[in-house]
Amino acid sequence: DEFMLPVYKEKIALWDWYEIESTGSTNDEIKRLVPSSGSSVALSAIRQTGGRGRRGRGWQEIEGNLYLTFSLNIPAAELSRYVCLIGLSLAETVKEIAPQSDVRIKWPNDVFLGGKKLSGILLENICGSLWAVGIGVNVAAAPELSGTGYEAGSLKENGIMLDRIEFLHYYLAKFASDLEQYRREGFLPLKERWLGLALNCRQKISVKTETAVKTGEFLTIDDNGYLMLKTGEGIERIVAGDLFM
Ligand code: BTN
Question: Which ligand 1 atom is nearest residue 52's CA?
Answer without folding.
Answer: 14
